[in-house]
Each structure stands twice: as C-alpha cells, then as structure tokens.
Design goal:
- This protein has 186 residues and is α/β, with parallel strands linked by helices.
- 38% of the residues lie in helices and 23% in strands.
- The chain has one domain: Rossmann fold (3-Layer(aba) Sandwich).
- It is built from 6 helices and 7 strands.
- Strands 2-3-4-1-5-7-6 form a 7-stranded mixed β-sheet, sandwiched between helices.
Length: 186
C-alpha cells in the first residue's frame, strides 16, 4: 500500500504565490527532493510517485479549488486503497504564527475551507502538517489575506517555512506522527 501526502492549495498561476498554497509548495519541494520525475493528472489531482526508503509515496495536489478539495481526495483514497488515518495533509494555518510548523493527528477544521471539505467528504482522522501563516493585519479579511499574491519579503517568509514542513512530512512517514510532533511542536 502506498502512502499518500496531499498538499492543499488552489490551482492556477494566479494562486501560486499565496499563503493558501503552502501545501502545494511543500509537496513541490518533496517531489523535488525525493526525485519525482513527472506529474500526472489523476482523479482530479496532480500526482507524482516517489520512494521513501522501501515505501512508495504518492504526492498529490488536488486541482479543485480549496473549498471543494475533498472530492479529488476521496477519489485518490479509493484508487490507492489508503485509509484516511494514513493520509498526511499539508495546509496553511491562520492560528499558528507565521513560519511555525506543527504535526497533528486529526482534529477540527478551524474554519479552514479545505479542511472543512475534507471533513465533509472523507472525515477528520488524517495526519496533518500545519504551516503557520499568522493572522491578517488590522481588519483585513481572512480570505483576502490567504489569497493575497505574495512578493519580496512576504514571499520569502512563506518559502522559508517550506523545508521545515517538508521535513515534518518525512518524519511522519518514517517515524510516525508522535515522533514528528515531538520534533516539530516546540
């Protein structure tokens, strides 16, 4: 049985450098470092197969918008026969300070539309890597904040958290969520 790592984000170049695409950025780095040779279109997602030790890992970026990402994730679970409890989901998190990374087992959606879609479609028993993006400044709307195109220093700050988040995913896959939590949840 393959392991499944899903990065949440929104498809399309206009969303590529937004906080909401933190999950895509992490999965892209994993694909690069683990030697993915190509992405294929599968079950409404971009997928790439890699090896981590003896295990096959399927990296996935659902190509539905965040608020309906549960549908392609459900299709991937069916195709690969992976139980939801073995899936690692990587997502942005407003409730964590910018740059903080946390591993987690299950939990609520906290108002995150991608997680809400997953909960409604496949349940909430998946493993998580949460990428902290902080709260919007002042009275800025949360949706505007997570979808704000980032440049310069703002983009650099998001990108700086990506390697740590990718390592948290590897730690979950190699050593389990408890070890990843002990390592990353400082």
């Amino acid at each position: 049985m393959a392991r499944l790592v899903i990065g949440l984000g929104n498809p399309g170049p206009e969303y590529a450098h937004t906080r909401h695409n933190a999950g895509f950025l992490v999965v892209d780095l994993l694909a690069e470092t683990l030697g993915a040779t190509y992405w294929r279109d599968e079950a409404g997602s971009k997928t790439a197969k890699v090896r981590l030790g003896a295990e096959e890992v399927v990296l996935a970026k659902p190509q539905a918008f965040m608020n309906v990402s549960g549908k392609p994730v459900k299709k991937l679970l069916e195709i690969y026969g992976v139980p939801i409890s073995e899936v690692v989901v990587v997502h942005d998190d407003l409730d964590l300070p910018e740059g903080d990374i946390r591993a987690k087992n299950g939990g609520g959606h906290g108002g995150h539309n991608g997680l809400r879609s997953l909960h409604d479609t496949v349940g909430d028993a998946y493993l998580r890597v949460r990428v902290g993006i902080g709260r919007p400044p002042g009275r800025m709307d949360a949706a505007d904040y997570v979808l704000e195109p980032l440049r310069g220093e703002k983009l650099s700050r998001l990108e700086e958290s990506v390697p740590t988040a990718a390592q948290a995913v590897v730690d979950i896959l190699e050593r389990g969520v408890d070890a990843a939590m002990a390592e990353h949840n400082g």
